[in-house]
Amino acid sequence: MGTASLCSSILLFTLIFHSCLHYNAAVGTEREALEIIIGGGGGGYPPPSPSPPPPRPPPPLSSRPPPPRSPCPPPPRPPRLPLSPRPNPTLSPRPNPPSNGFVSKNIERDYHIIQRFKKLITSDPMKITKKWVGKDVCNYPGFRCATVPDHKVTALAAADFNGYHFGGRDLQLTGFLDQLPDLSVFHANSNNFTGPIPKSIGNARNLLEVLFLNNELEGCLPYEIGKLNKAVVFDVGSNKLTGPIPHSFACLKKMEILNLAVNKFYGPVPEMVCDLPRLANLSLSYNYFTQVGPECRKLIKKRILDVRMNCILDLPGQRSAADCAKFFSKKRTCPNERSLSYIPCRKGGYSSSLETSDQQSMAPAAAPITYNALKPHKLRL
């Protein structure tokens, strides 16, 4: 019986021991599962000595997918579109590129005008026109080029034929001077230009200096000369020009030197011409002018106006009565005489008082009667 009691005790102990082992194993398993879920122990239980591999930590920030790009502004697009048209101006600049060997369209236009004019010159004692070859007009003798300020292009700026003695059967200014709109200087002293000064001279509004001195020009002065409002020098001395001074000369506000001497001009000298603000030299000598007013007489006293050898009755140094009578014995008229009283720079255009004065002065019969009644000594010759 004692043996049976001992065996029962051992069996009971064994059962209790196995149940404890089973409980501890269950508890350890649950703790491990709990640690995996919450990322580490709780409640102060020490980790088991042979700690299993640590639980996988949450993915690091670097391995997380990048945040959406919407909060950050996208990088600027490469400036392909704005840059692509920029080279175009260099390829096709505003001033048209030289074509046909000319530096500008202005020079190309002037080249053809010069070549046409060259054909009219049949007398060229200095052989100037033989050098007018090629398309480089700017290097022709007698021509100078410059840049037009308003358009930034090269153009013909000056023609200087002084002393060249050009001649020809029909060597006229028409079709040449009036076709060179960029010219600022035209000097043609001592040549053989014939015919009238063209009305289209008013188109050459950039002219500053105009010298027709000592040529064979004929006819009356066109009123269009008054459109040359930039001109400072106008010299038609020693030609065969005639008629009254156009009243349009009152528009030449920048004129400093005005020479009409040694021609066949007649009539009264317009007061408005003597009243030009910058006038420094007005030469009207050796003509057939008949009257000067108060403003002109002031210029005579200042030695600005020269009216020697005219037909002004009360002034010294005038032509003889016989000479004046002979001149006025012939009827002298100009085409479109009314235009001679036109003043393009003034409102209304015409001045009735000046127009009447001109009409009276242009009557050819009055002067011979007056001069026939004069004695030569009263002219102080």
Can you give me a brief rundown of this structure?
With 381 residues, the protein is an alpha/beta fold. The chain has helices at 2-38, 80-83, 87-91, 105-120, 271-274, 294-301, 321-328, 352-361, 366-372, and strands at 143-148, 153-160, 185-187, 194-195, 209-211, 216-220, 233-235, 240-243, 257-259, 264-268, 281-283, 288-291, 305-306. Strands 1-2-3-5-7-9-11-13 form an eight-stranded mixed beta sheet. It has a five-stranded parallel beta sheet with strand order 4-6-8-10-12.
Q: Which stretches of 5+ consecutive residues score pLDDT under 50?
A: 23-45, 87-94, 353-381
Strand content: 5-15%
- From the helix content, strand content and strand pairing, which structural class follows? alpha/beta
| Helical coverage, percent range | 25-40%
CATH class (first level) name of the largest domain: Alpha Beta
Please give the largest β-sheet.
8 strands, mixed
- How many discrete domains? 2
Could you say what the CATH topology of the largest domain is called?
Leucine-rich repeat, LRR (right-handed beta-alpha superhelix)
Lateral strand order in the biggest sheet: 1-2-3-5-7-9-11-13
Taking all Cα atoms into account, the compactness measure Rg is 53 Å
Morphology:
elongated
What is the CATH-assigned architecture of the largest domain? Alpha-Beta Horseshoe
Total of DSSP H or I helical runs spanning 4+ residues:
9
State the oligomer: single chain
- Tally of extended strands? 13
Mean pLDDT: 79
Secondary-structure element pattern, one letter each: HHHHEEEEEEEEEEHEEHEHHH
